Amino acid sequence: MRRGVVQRVRMQRTAKLPTRVVYTGSYVVYLLVSAVVAGCGGAGAGDGTSTAAVSATNPQTAGSSGSSSATATNSPPTISGTPGTQVQTGQAYSFTPSANDSDGHKLTFSVLNGPSWASFSTTSGQLSGTPSSAQAGNYANIVISVSDGTTSASLPPFSITVNAVPAGTGSATVKWNAPATNTDGSTIVNLAGYQIDYGTSASSLIQSVTISDPTATSYTLQGLATGTWYFAVSDFTSAGTVSALSTVVSKTIQ
Question: Which pTM value belongs to this model?
Answer without folding.
Answer: 0.46
